[in-house]
């Protein structure tokens, strides 16, 4: 797909999302991000808020295990993820941040909740990933394999899309791109 077509579809999808969803939808994410900025970490309370925001099922084995994990351990893992996300180039940073929270129950498989936590920790650098964002990439002709390190590869794709958009005169944040991909992924 031509770069201009990709950017046009991406920007159009972002506008479609913004027209359909009120700004209040992201209030939870914004509040959790504010806590991360102030404290440098997230605890079980903030992760619980993100579970609600992502509309995930919390009546699972991992949620019970997370609740039995001391909040100091949760905060230590999320603080390490935040530090890792700020270092080096984007793929290595995303992989290191993802690896830092892998130790927590509920974060060993799948990237949806993990990426929401990482986005809240470092919103200027990391985006939310889910099956709809994955499908959105595919709709743009971008292949993302499901193998190990997927989140790092996803962030490379997000940054490439941001670069393409900037070349066309559109300055998009990582959150803008993930919202557009989410919309494209229907």
Q: Could you explain the architecture of this structure?
A:
The chain is mainly alpha-helical and 186 residues long. It folds into 2 domains: 3-21 and 129-184, no CATH class; 26-121, no CATH class. Helix content is 67%, strand content 0%. The protein contains 10 helices and no strands. It has helices at 3-20, 27-39, 44-54, 61-67, 71-86, 90-101, 112-121, 131-139, 150-167, 174-184. The longest helix is centred in the first third of the chain and has 18 residues, at 3-20. It starts with a helix and ends with a helix. The model has no long low-confidence stretch (mean pLDDT 95).
Number of strands: 0
What structural class do you assign from the helix and strand content? mainly alpha
> Could you give a short account of the major beta sheet?
none
Shape, principal axes of CA atoms: globular
Estimate the strand proportion. under 5%
Please tell me how large the radius of gyration is.
Answer: 16 Å
Number of helices: 10
Mean of residue pLDDT values: 95
How many separate domains make up the residues?
2
**Helical content band:** 55-70%
Termini gap: 19 Å
- Uncertain stretches of 5 or more adjacent residues: none
Order of helices and strands: HHHHHHHHHH
Question: Summed up, what is this model?
Answer:
By secondary structure, the protein is mostly helical. The protein has helices spanning 3-20, 27-39, 44-54, 61-67, 71-86, 90-101, 112-121, 131-139, 150-167, 174-184.
């Amino acid at each position: 797909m031509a770069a201009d077509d990709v950017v046009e579809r991406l920007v159009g999808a972002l506008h479609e999302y913004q027209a359909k969803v009120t700004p209040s939808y992201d209030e939870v994410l914004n509040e959790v991000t504010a806590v991360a900025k102030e404290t440098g970490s997230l605890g079980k309370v903030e992760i619980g808020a993100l579970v609600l925001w992502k509309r995930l099922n919390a009546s699972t084995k991992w949620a019970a295990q997370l609740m039995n994990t001391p909040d100091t351990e949760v905060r230590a893992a999320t603080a390490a993820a935040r530090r890792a996300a700020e270092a080096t180039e984007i793929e290595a940073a995303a992989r290191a941040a993802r690896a830092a929270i892998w130790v927590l129950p509920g974060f060993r498989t799948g990237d949806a909740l993990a990426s929401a936590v990482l986005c809240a920790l470092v919103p200027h650098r990391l985006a939310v990933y889910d099956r709809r964002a994955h499908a959105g990439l595919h709709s743009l002709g971008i292949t993302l394999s499901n193998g190990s390190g997927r989140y790092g590869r996803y962030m490379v794709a997000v940054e490439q899309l941001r670069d393409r958009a900037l070349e066309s005169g559109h300055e998009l944040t990582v959150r803008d791109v993930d919202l557009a991909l989410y919309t494209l992924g229907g």
